[in-house]
Amino acid sequence: MSGGSKSLRGLVTDWFGNGENLRVTRPDRSRKMPWRAVRIEVARSSGMLAIVFFRHDDGSWCVYPPSTVQPATNWVLT
To answer: Which superkingdom does the taxonomy of this entry point to (predicted)?
Structure first.
């Protein structure tokens, strides 16, 4: 992992806080989406909140994919 990057757990805590009931899903890698990624979601009173984190080649986790091509996912955000 690069020097200034956080672990996935640290990022999830920053975005969602502690004590939430989180649901974690991982998509199958394919030609359309070759990245390592996880989708974290939590049900809140205002509705479902979901964020996709992508693993970069340096080991860091980010909310954007590691290339300039936008991902094609089958995830539907409701």
So the answer is: Bacteria
